[in-house]
Design goal:
The structure is a single chain. By secondary structure, this protein is mainly α. It has 9 helices and 2 strands; from the N terminus they run αααααααββαα. α2 crosses α3, α3 packs antiparallel against α4 and α4 packs antiparallel against α9. The protein starts with a helix and ends in a 5-residue tail after the last helix.
Amino acid sequence: MGKGCTTVTKYFLFLFNLLFFVFGALIMGFGLWVLFDKESFIAVLQESSDTVKVASYILIGVGSLSMAMGFFGCIGAIYEIRCLLGLYFTCLLLIFIAQVTAAVLIYIQRDPLKHEMSIIIKGMIVNYTGQNKTTEHAWDFIQRTIKCCGWTGPGNWSENALIKNSTQNLYSCSCRNDTLPGTDVKEFGLCENLSPQLPVYETGCITSVEKWLLDNCGIILGICVGVAIVELLGMILSMCLCKSVVQEDYTKVPKY
């Protein structure tokens, strides 16, 4: 490889690792958001299942590793240090294999994961009191924002312990459809309605979540493919530069 080509490869690899460092910071930030967020669908799952917490720790770990790899990759590229370039290639290959394995496992286990999520949400609805400021208020926020009621539909709320044992006609306040006549809109808790017809949304949240996933499937898939291409490009560039460094070292050996 010529000197000019080596220089171009070196700076391309430097820029690539700079982007990799930024992506790592974003992944770590997303993991921290999943771990500490208290006002989204994630918070509802996190309170009832250790799976989400484990996933957040994995994201934080992968993000931190990506940032470290980006830093050492930049140093290895600029100073042409073969051991750092080789270490960078190995770590990038391991991350690529881990990502492919995780994607395959999620695809294979999608039905059990969906079932587990359904059990968690329905259990939370049954035990809902409106006093829990983490999971219950997060679920209220979801129902208000997505404009849905219950997991599969508003009928899920008929299983709620307080509603079932009350003589009043109660419903989840966050299910309130403000386009229908009824009592004042409240953000959380249980509300009373005087008429038998409840002024709530008729669509279950599972339908809205699945619709969102279908609408954004192309974007999600595109991001995954883009990350995979970037990782493959990084491996190719690091090997090309590492090979050129080896060749240049051999040319410097005096001949007798």
